[in-house]
Structure formats: structure tokens, C-alpha cells
Amino acid sequence: MKLWAGRFQKETDQKTNDFNSSISFDSRMAREDIEGSIAHAAMLGACGVIDKDEAGKICIGLEQILRDLESGALQIDPSAEDIHTFIEGELTQRLGDAGKRLHTARSRNDQVALDVRLYLRKQCDALSGQLRDLTQVLCKKAAGYAEAVMPGYTHLQRAQPITFGHHLMAYAEMFLRDLDRLRDARKRMNFCPLGSGALAGTTYPLDRGMTASLLGFDGPTHNSLDGVSDRDFCMELAAAVAITMVHLSRFSEEIILWCSWEFKFIELDDAFSTGSSIMPQKKNPDIAELVRGKAGRVIGGLTALLTMMKGLPLAYNKDMQEDKEAVFDAVDTLSMCLTAFVPMVETMKVLPENMRRAAARGFINATDCADYLVGKGLPFRDAYKVTGSLVAYCIEHGRTLEDLPLETYQAFHPLFGEDVYEAISLERCVNGRKVLGGPAPENVRAESERVLALLNACEEWPAAVPGGELWL
Asked: How far apart are CA 461 and CA 179, in angstroms?
């Protein structure tokens, strides 16, 4: 059944029909389409646009279709133009004329805009739950390794001493921001376009506030043109997902480095690694590498959405059918990545002794050595030059700042005393950085507790929409 067949004298060419069809990817919105249709029918009955008894029959019929779809008793017809056409056709086949009244005062334009919002709203909630799980894992692991000294890097060169816990909490902060972005995206998408019609609303006396309320929205959209042509919520969610994937990709890159023999800061659990078909010694971080690779795919989806929308006049254009595949793939990809990433991080073995050895060999306490001289009264630039000369000497003679004899220190500058060894101790260098945001162990533990408290205090987002029988 084609909803627009009356205007046309010829059957659509099969290739055109296949090209035009969206059932292959919008069928995942069957539940949302039925939920929206039940709310629409209930409102039509309450407003007297259609008979209230018929509205009740429509709602019951739609509920039965949903049960049949979920039980497998009803299969979606892949030849249908879209999920909306399929469900309305099935309803009409079951109810006759009553089913034909469902689409009164509604267009597929506002129907599709509604379904996508309903579907993506649920995806926001599901992704947020996964991100909360990852952030909780990071916080707990960070607290456990708050004193594990490791090199901090700039330009991938050893720079200053930090702790593994401090490093993990940097990612916890990123994912906390990602959660905020998902919350913001959900907040702005939570308005109901139903009642906007094709583009100009309708002359029927609808109660759009009732429909919005039944579906758990904050209210109806306020402009019918915008209601059917807005896809900001798709782009915004895709952007939030892409940024999250960038964070996961950066974390994956570090995990890949850390578990290499050159670093050996961590070891991934066997359950989240793979081997080589020819090299028996290999243990490959494939999960992290796949996450890193899939970030490009999600960024491409965001680019496709932005490019698709940038030249469209108001209101609806068929180009907008491309919104679903891009944003659906983005949320699917992030969800799949998090499903594997969370337990990978939770089960990885941390090797703090190797981190400590790398920190000792990297002259990452050189800044603290310079600060020691500053504390003795030497201007910082002079202290910097003296320390740089010391580092060059150590490199030439295979020494570290920690094992350099005092007489060598004093040969470079007389202000050096026995207390220099305490000043350049890696543990002291880390413990002394108590400034807000610094890597001192007490800071890391406090930050872990703060983020966990924020996660636990997050208000639960609205539960799933109630069954249609409760709306009548």
C-alpha cells in the first residue's frame, strides 16, 4: 500500500521503489512509531476529531501489532516503503475503516520527526548508562593507583611525574563532559513535532500539549515549519557521540602504547586481546585498535549529516531520509565500542613498577630540581640553565638526577646541598603538587570521590513511555 497512490496513474518502477524505500533502516523505530500513533489516536478521540470508541479500537489494534512484532508472530514486510506505511497498512487490514482514520491530522513529515526523536531519546539514555559505567570504573581504578608514579608526557616525551590515577582521572573528566553533552542533546530534542502536519499544521482542533505530555516530552514544538524540518537534534547527538569517540580513541591510543613492550605499563586481559596467525608470541590490543578506527567512521557520520542539511530549504526534503542511517550508525558504533571497552579497562593489569622505572629514567624531576634552586634564591632562568646542564651531563655519563653525587651537583652550582635529594624525589615531586587539579594522591582520591558522587547524584531520566492502554 502506498499512502500517496491516489495522485499517480502508473505503478512506481521497482528500482525507484527500492531506491526510495527506507524500511531497511527505519524498521528499528517500529515501537516508537506505534507509541506515537497510540498517543495521536488517543488525542484525536479526546478532541472529538474521530469517534472515541474508534480511537480506543485503534490503540488496542496498535498494541496488538506491537506484541505480534515483538513475539515474532508478525514479520515486517521488506517491500514496504517505510515502517510507518507498514504499520498503518497492517492496522487497516485488521480494523478496516477505523485503521484508515489514524492518519487524520497527521503527515509522515511530523510522524517521522516524532519517531526519530523518540528513538534517539532512548539511545541517549542507554549511551549515558554505558558512559556512567566507564567513568565509575575509571574513578575506582584511579583511587587504587593514586600513588603509582608514572611519567607524564608532552610531545610523547617524558615531561613531569604524575600518577596513573591522575592520568585515568583526566579521562574521567572527559567522559563526564560527554555525559553532559548527551544530557544537553536529550534536553533539546525533547519537544514534540506531532501536529505540525506536512509543514503548515492543520485545521483540526488538536491538543498538541496532550500528545506531547502522553509521550513524555517537555512540550510541543512552536513552529510547524521547524517542527518537520529540524534535524538539529540528530546533528547535536552525532556531534556528542563523535566527541566521545575522539576521547575513546585517544584513550585507546595510550592503551596500545602502554601495553607494548616498549612501555609495558599495563597488560590487557586475555579475554580482550587477540593473537597472531603466524607469530606465537603476539598479544594484540585489537579492541583498542578497533575503537580507534571506528572513531573515524563516527566522525564521517557527523560530517555527512552536516553536509546533507546545509543546503536544504524549508520544510521537508527527501534528502533528510539520510539522517537516520548516519545517526543510527553513530549511536550503534559508540554503544558497541563501550560494550567492549568498559570491561577491557576494568580487567587490565597495571604494572606500577615499570611505570616507576620509566619515571626515574626520564629526568622528569628536572623542573623540581630547577625549582629547588629557585627556592635557594637563584632566578628561574639561571636555575633552568643549570639544571639543563646537569641533565646533559647525566645523559653523557649514564646517570640519573637521583643517583648523582653531591659533589657533582655542587660543581654545577654551590647552592646545591644534601636536601636536593629530597627535593627531587619522584614521590615528593608528585606529593607536593597539591594545587587543585594536581596529581598529589590526596587530590586524585578526592577527585575520584567527587566524580563518583556526581554520577550517583545524576537524576534518572524519564522511564519508558507507558502502554497505550493507560492513555485512554
From this structure: 13
Strand partners, 157: 154
Whether the bond between 159 and the residue before it is cis, its omega within 30 degrees of 0, is: no
Q: How much is the pTM?
A: 0.90
**Pick the catalytic residue: 155, 222, 413, 425?**
155
Assign 3-class secondary structure to 368-387.
HHHHHHHHCCCCHHHHHHHH
Instruction: Report which DSSP code applies to 220.
Output: B
In b/e form, how buried is each residue of 169-195, taking b as 16+ CB within 10 angstroms? bbbbebbbebbebbbebbeebbbbbbb
- In what helix (H) or strand (E) does residue 73 lie, and over which residues does it extend? none
Q: Give CA–CA dist 81/85, Å, rounded.
A: 6
Catalytic residue (choose from 24, 79, 260, 276) = 276
Catalytic, 155? Answer: yes
Whether 413 is catalytic: no
One DSSP character per residue, 299-362 reads HHHHHHHHHHHTTPPSS--GGGGHHHHHHHHHHHHHHHHHHHHHHHHHHPEE-HHHHHHHHHHT
C-alpha R_g of the chain: 30
Instruction: Please name the amino acid found at residue 382.
Output: D
| Average pLDDT, 10 consecutive residues per value, the chain (472 residues) | 52 62 92 98 98 97 98 96 96 96 97 98 97 98 97 93 97 98 97 98 98 98 98 98 98 97 95 77 90 98 98 94 96 98 97 94 88 95 95 92 92 94 91 94 97 84 42 42
Segment holding 224, helix H or strand E: helix 224-229
Q: H helices within 103-223, ranges in order?
A: 108-144, 164-189, 208-214
158 in Cβ contact with 367 (< 8 Å): no
d(CA 134, CA 11): 52
